Amino acid sequence: MNHAANEKEGIKEIQFLSWGFLVISVFCFFELAYYYIAASPLL
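The structure corresponding to this sequence follows.
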């Protein structure tokens, strides 16, 4: 029983880390896109 609870916590932790990675990736993408657009001679 305790082992199953630990497994569930591990899964939760992995999900949290993957969501954090996703958020950071999206944030970095928008940062790069913003700088690319701001430096673009088209504007």
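The chain has a mean pLDDT of 87.
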